[in-house]
Design goal:
- By secondary structure, the chain is α/β, with parallel strands linked by helices.
- It contains 10 helices and 8 strands.
- Helix 1 crosses helix 10 and helix 2 packs across helix 10.
- The two termini are about 15 Å apart.
- The relative contact order is 0.18.
Length: about 280
């Protein structure tokens, strides 16, 4: 098993993948996948791409992840792209790996380093000796995620200032980047790095807030910004899909809340960039 590599995607890979998206239009997920052999052996040229989602009890989350899977398959139809879950949804990652042999690249649909990326995924790979797998870096932090977060905020009603009066009012706006949270300090560092990227894009303060683990909570982050004099505080949902965490984050806000990142073309582009970087690193 090749050790995970925590490096960002290169501009060359993003340019190549962007061209592939331009050349191919997205397709709608049909809800059924074609029958596959019990064991698929891949050459070193094109490892299978296994998109590893966390899993959720919310059916809307699975629907959104499958839409992202459809974008990936439309962009790269020559690849064997599989969806696997760490829990709660089928198929589970060990089941998906049991159907494969040879090189595979696991792309975690996770937004920062933490227990799943550091421990769970390498352990599952080690338990599947018929594959030679690599684990990519998590999706965040990354400039492409900044683009998606910005777009989701615009969809929710965030407006860029155009006049002097709007710029003055914009100076009293702020954002809480609402994340699930983790006890791993590296995961918190990744979320805070993404908050800084978003602040640079929006030109307003952006503070990380957490739903499940970590401090401050989303509500505490909103209250803290309010105490500092910010009058309109948006909540940016830093989640890959809908679910309980996204709803809890929205409930803690007092103004607008953006939708999760979801099945966005830039999300698919980022997944493919992580895959290509890992594939080329393994080939080298």
């Amino acid at each position: 098993m090749t050790p995970p590599a925590w490096t960002s995607s290169s501009s060359d890979l993003l340019t190549e993948i962007s061209q592939q998206f331009t050349a191919r239009s997205a397709v709608s997920w049909s809800g059924r996948s074609a029958a596959r052999p019990a064991l698929v052996v891949h050459s070193a040229r094109r490892p299978a791409l296994v998109l590893v989602a966390h899993g959720s009890r919310d059916p809307a989350a699975l629907t959104e992840i499958r839409r992202l899977l459809a974008l990936l398959r439309a962009a790269r139809p020559e690849l064997d792209i599989r969806l696997a879950h760490l829990g709660l949804n089928a198929p589970l990652l060990p089941e998906v790996l049991a159907e494969l042999a040879g090189p595979v690249v696991l792309v975690p649909l996770l937004l920062g380093r933490g227990y799943h990326v550091k421990v769970d995924l390498p352990a599952v790979l080690a338990a599947a000796p018929q594959v030679s797998g690599t684990v990519t870096a998590p999706l965040g932090p990354d400039g492409l995620l900044t683009d998606v977060l910005h777009e989701r905020l615009l969809e929710a009603g965030w407006a860029e200032p155009a006049t002097v009066r709007e710029r003055q009012r914009h100076g009293r706006d702020a954002v809480v980047l609402a994340a699930s949270g983790s006890r791993d300090p590296d995961a918190a560092a990744d979320t805070e790095a993404q908050a800084r990227l978003l602040a640079k894009r929006l030109h307003v303060p952006v503070v990380a807030g957490y739903v499940a683990a970590g401090s401050p909570s989303v509500a505490e982050a909103v209250a803290g910004l309010s105490a500092r004099g910010y009058r309109r505080i948006a909540v940016a949902g830093y989640f890959t899909a809908p679910g309980d965490f996204a709803r809890l984050a929205a409930a803690a806000g007092d103004w607008l809340t953006s939708a999760p990142l979801g099945a966005h073309e830039l999300m698919a582009r980022l997944v493919l960039a992580r895959y290509e970087h890992s594939r080329l690193r393994a080939a080298a």
